[in-house]
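Exercise 7. Given the encoded structure of a 157-residue chain, write a plausible sequence.
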């Protein structure tokens, strides 16, 4: 797999429960999602004028894998507004010692990117925090963009 940012965690829930939670994007990332997130096709994410992107769901393997391709991206806080464009987000689900491991990789999100610190911090909050809580407790904390932006000194345009 290409270079990128990767994190993982394990839970007691089944691979099927994890797969369902990942595809319930409004439940852990943002309620400002436009389009279906549980079938092949396109959906859009937007947080104010700070960040917006168009994602194509390119692979759905129930209980095993979800892949999103970022077709278009815009950040208002970096020089290269399209830093994520052409990158992929991969969720891999595997049984491991009686538990389910979730491995999140943003392929192409590399330290050379200006957004790397903000983006990796954000993914950590959303994946290890909100998504994990959605899987384990049935409720995530979507829409944390405001807190993340202010933590990093990012202003809405």
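Solution.
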């Amino acid at each position: 797999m290409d270079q990128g940012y990767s994190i993982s965690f394990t839970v007691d829930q089944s691979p099927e429960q994890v797969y369902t939670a990942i595809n319930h994007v409004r439940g852990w990332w943002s309620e400002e999602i436009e389009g279906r997130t549980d079938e092949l096709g396109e959906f859009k994410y937007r947080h104010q004028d700070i960040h917006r992107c168009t994602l194509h769901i390119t692979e759905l393997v129930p209980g095993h894998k979800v892949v999103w391709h970022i077709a278009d991206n815009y950040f208002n806080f970096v020089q290269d507004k399209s830093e994520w464009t052409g990158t992929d987000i991969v969720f891999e689900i595997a049984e491991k010692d009686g538990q389910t491991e979730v491995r999140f990789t943003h392929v192409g999100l590399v330290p050379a990117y200006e957004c790397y610190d903000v983006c990796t911090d954000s993914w950590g909050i959303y994946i290890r925090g909100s998504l994990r809580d959605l899987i384990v407790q049935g409720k995530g904390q979507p829409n944390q963009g405001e807190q993340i932006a202010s933590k990093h000194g990012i202003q809405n345009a």
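Remark. The chain has one domain: 4-151. Students should compare their own answers with the one above.
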